[in-house]
Structures are given as structure tokens and as C-alpha cells.
Please model this.
Amino acid sequence: MAWFNRRSKPPISAKESKKVQVPEGVWTKCKNCDEIIYSKEIERNLNVCPKCDYHFRISARNRISLVLDEGSFVEMDAGMESVDFLEFKDSKKYKDRIKTAVAKANGGDAIVCGEGTIEGLPVVVGVFDFGFMGGSMGSVVGEKITRAIERGHEMKKPVLIFSSSGGARMQESILSLMQMAKSSAALAKLKAAGIPFLSILTDPTTGGVTASFAMLGDLNIAEPKALIGFAGPRVIEQTIRQKLPEGFQRSEYLLEHGMVDMIVRRPEMKARLSQILHILTKS
Amino acid sequence: MRSYLDFERPLADLEQKLHELREYSTDSVDFSGEIKKLEKKATKLREEIFSNLTRWQRTQLARHPERPHTLDYIEKVFTDWFELHGDRNFRDDPALVCGFARLDGEPVAIIGHQKGRDTKAKVHRNFGMPNPEGYRKALRVMQMAEQFDIPVFTFVDTPGAYPGIGAEERGQAEAIARNLREMAALTVPVIVTITGEGGSGGALAIAVGNKVLMMQYSVYSVISPEGCTAILWSDGTRGPEAAEALKLTAADINELKFVIDEVIPEPAGGAHNDPAAAAEMIKAVLKNQLAELQKLTKDELVEQRYQKFRAMSMVEE
Model:
């Protein structure tokens, strides 16, 4: 039999390949270095890759527990939910997208806001949840952020926003755009009152979120290697028809170009924020 | 040679015929009866076409190659115009024009996106897509207006802020964000008119006003229909559907009640059909709006603007 006729059965059947698979979640492949790492090890390392220092995206609740003093967090506006006032429909109805996301997240929207303390210092925080429709900003996110800023103003507490968002939520069209103006206007008042606003940019922060409050921190602080930009890399590539330079729109690139004040690793974030806030508030 | 959009085609044929008849009319040959009949027909046809426009067609009108741009309106609405250049940091951005002029004798500052008409001018104006230095120039001039207690008029007509490497390097997001915050704090009247395309953050960066007006065939949206379908449908060719979903026309946005203050009507067939008449309509509205705002004190102006944007949300609690 000629070698080219010698067709054996397919290398591995679907059934067999299933056998060698490990239970989901035990191992995680790092998105940055492709290393396969024991998931528990990543978790123990605050969801930072122990091999390459890539900072994995984490949930808002997880972030709050890493930054605020234990038990100090009191949530604001927890029950606020999005409305499909335009009856927007793409491949799926917005109404259904909201329902799915709310069920998955157990209520809420793409941001969690509230008050708490950082090493004893009272603050107001807003923390994005990228898992909720890509952290997109519609009316709910804009309204919660604005209320958080207003609360900081009223109570004379520093305001911190941890961003992780693809930008404005298309399904709320013009009203999503207006959230950029609304939240930035609230920051104008906070600034005039001399109350610190820290913007912490985490992977990814793009579009209308970057082009409003996220770039307006008295200090802009980034986590390592986070994608931060106005236009998405794909859009830019399509516009200019060129390949983008290495490291383009990453935290280190923004630091070099003067857009962020510092890059802070997750394990050091709380101590650094505390140090900054205590200096700015002379406490 | 005028250019026509697809749906204007039937009108184009009629107008061509009219043009020829007028051309061939001499003292000895009289086509006036014929011409009158055709003119009547053209008017009726125009009314028919324009009373049934889809959102996509309105978007195309907002981008019509012959639609008047900011400098056209400046010439027709204002006097004593002089342009100011540069952000004092990097360069002058021709995609955004800034300067001072008079509106019926009253000194005003003017900020507006500028698109080009022919290919060379389009490239020079970067298709009306500003870089960060454009927004920084705009802020410089707006704050100068505040310094001299002069009201600000802005004219919005952009597909969006330019998405390029240099723009990102120089902080496109920061430039837009800063404008949003600083415009909110201006102590002079700010009157915004969306004249053509109100494209996302690139539009909003000069659109935080005490009054926001939209021309009848302008659009205003968080993303262009093409961009929207590229992301949500992963198919950039379904612009018409996305335009329907985004509800981006002046009429749609006016229905929300709290985003814009007034829709400025346009002449039959759109502003490009009669730019002089369009300018007259704008001028009348701008004067009224300014007179109203001039009754407010500086603090009241800032507070009125804040409350206007503060009210913009629809949520369930």
C-alpha cells in the first residue's frame, strides 16, 4: 500500500480529547505570556500572573476588598438598573442583554459605588465591573459616578474611581454620550472645592470613559500593562492602515507620553493610595 | 456641477431639465410656461422625498458634500470675523476653527469643526476630525472669551475625534475630557449648534452648552452607524439598520426632551439647497437664545448648564 493511501483513523477522536481535559478553572492560561498556571496560585497572587506580572481583570467586589479596609464598605445606589428606553436592538435586544447581565452579576450594572476607608481615611469609591457588558457606561454608570462625586463633595471625602471599560454603551445612544459631560461637570465642582480625585486605570480603559472622568484625576494611576486609550487599537489600525508600534496604548506607553503619573502594581496599590491621600488631605 | 444623494436622484433629473430649458430660453423662444410647470413639479417632488426620509438618509444629508460648513455660516451669520490659530503647545489644527466676530454688533467667540469641500481641502481639514491640539486650541479660545466676558457659540460637524497614533500619543482622551470639565465651568453663555454630524466624544468636546440646538437634518450620536454595526453586528455595511437603532436624528433626540433645546428648521431640500436661507434661520434662533441667556448672572449660567446635563439619565431605582 502506497504511503499516500495509508490514511489511518483521525488522530484523536473528540471523545478521547475530552478525557485528557482537566476540569475547567483548575488551570489558567495567562493572556499575556501564554503560560499555563495553577489558578489557585494566580488567585493567591491577587490575580496577577506570577510569571509575567500581567494583571488579570478582577470583579468590582474583589477590587474593593483589596483596596478598602475590611468591613468598611457601604454601598450606594445598589438597586439602580438600566432601562431600554430606545428599544434598541442589534443581534439581540438590549432589554435581553440587560436581563442576562443582571442575572449573571446578581443585580446592579457595570459599576459598584460606595463609601469606605483606606487605612482609616474616609473615601468614596466607584469600581467598574468589566464583566457587566464590557464595563460600558450608560445612564446607570454615569448617574452612579456623578452621585459618588457629589457625595465626595458634600462629605468632603476624596473620590476614587477604578476604571475598566470599553467606553460608552452604544445601546443608550445619545444618553450614554451625555454621561461623559455629566460626570466631568461634577468633577469641575469637586476640583473647585479642593477635594482630591484619583483615577485608577486598569485593563482595559478606552473610549468615552477615558475621554471623560478617567483622564481627569488629580493623579492618574495605572496598573501595569493595562490597555488605555481613546480609540481602540483595531479602529486606529483600520484608519491609518499601518501596524501599531509595540506596547502602543499600554500603561508604560502612557507614562512615557505623560498621560499617567505612575504605574502601581496591585499588591502595592492600597499602601500607595493611602500615602497619596494622606499627603493631599494633609492628614 | 451639483452632487446628489441616491434618494435625491429623481430631483436631480428634473433640475437638470430645468437648467437646460433656462439655458435654451432666448427672446425668440419662450419656455417660461414649461419652466413654471417643471418648477412646480420639482417643489412637489422635493416635498415628497423629504417628508419620508429614513434615519440613514438623514445621516447622509447631515454629511452631504454640499452642506454648509462652519466657515460658511460664519460668513453669512456674523460680521468682523477673525480667526485665531494654535494651541500654544504643538500646532494649529485646521479641523477646528476658532476666533471672534460680531452677531448683530455684539462681540462673540466662535468655535467650530471645519470640513473641506474639494479633495485637497478635505485632507487639509482632516475631514473635520480634530487632533488633541484642536481641542486644546478651542479651550484656549473659550477661556479667553470668558476672560473678556464674551459669549461662546460653537458649531458641531465632525465624524469624530481623529483616531491616530499621534492623537493617542498627545492625549486625545485627555484633551476631550478636559474640555468637558472646563466647559462646564465657563461663566459666559455657551450656545451649541449641531449643524451636520455630531460624532461622539469628538463632538461633545465642544458641545457642553447652556443651550444645545440641532439643525433639522443633523445627527448626534455616541457612535457613527458604521462604527456601531462594525462592533455590534461585526459587519460594517449595515449602517442603515444601525442608524434606525441609534435614533440619532434631530427629531429623535428632541423627543427625549432634556438633551437638546430646539430644532432649527432648514429650507426645503436641506441647508445645502439654500445656504443663505439656512443661515437666516440659524441667526434668528441664535439671537433669541443669546438674549435669553444674557438675563442670567455668571453663577446662574454655570448652575443652569450643570443642572441641564445633571438631568440627563434614564434609570430604574
Q: What stands out?
A: Chain B touches chain A through 55 residues (CB under 8 Å). Residues 59-310 of chain B form a domain with the 2-enoyl-CoA Hydratase; Chain A, domain 1 fold (CATH 3.90.226.10). The mean pLDDT of chain B is 94. The CA atoms of residues 187 and 298 of chain B lie 5 Å apart.
